[in-house]
Amino acid sequence: MYIGRFVVLGITQRGQRFLGYRVSSRSFPDRRIVAREDRAAVLPTEDAAPSDNPYIAYNCLRTSGDTVVVANGSHVDPIIDKVRAGFPLRDAMALSLLALDYEHDDYSTPRIVAGWEREAGYLGIVTPEKLVVRAIPLEPGEARLIATYELTEATELVFEGVTAEALAEAVYHAPYEHPVAALATVVEDTVSMAVIGPEA
Question: What backbone phi and psi angles, to 5 degrees, belong to 82?
Fold first, then answer.
């Protein structure tokens, strides 16, 4: 099944909060994820063909204090900006999704987001038909994903691993078609991040 890009919200078997993100693409596979200190970005690979598509390069992860967010587009930036301005994460997600709306491309691609704010985890999505931001209660060993296609409601899936590296591998190898690159981050006192994919 092809579900496009997806975000993951979970708790490891050891009780660690984690997030995951995977780029899956049939149209623009020549992309990579580049990790930096407080963010990660989806960028074209060095040999990618030039494109004027505004949706293929963006920050996909941002952090601010004990808040961490992953998303499939530029909405990750205003979410973190609003958190830094004092908004609760739920409100920051809802306002940013409402303001930017779904991607106005040929597929009306939804914007999706997952985030942790202290012990509270949220999933959000905006499509042509709906805007939903939900708190997701989880127990150790549980995870939920939400995708741009097919799985547009919170969907249970198991991701094995307790390190960012193992979780990134699990996200990359999730049983959905056309993986391109993936990341995972474990959110404890500090945030650890790992990336899988081209030039990672």
Answer: -70, -40
Please state, in angstroms and rounded to a whole number, the distance separating the CA atoms of residues 181 and 31.
Answer: 7
Q: What is the DSSP string of 79-114?
A: HHHHHHTT--HHHHHHHHHHHH-S--STT-PPEEEE
Query: Is the entire prediction scored with pTM above 0.90?
Result: yes
* pLDDT tens profile 132-180: 999 999 999 999 999 999 999 999 999 999 999 999 999 999 999 999 9
* Domains of the chain (ranges, CATH numbers): 6-196 (3.60.20.20)
Q: How many CA atoms lie within 13 A of 57 on its CB side?
A: 12
3-state secondary structure of 74: coil
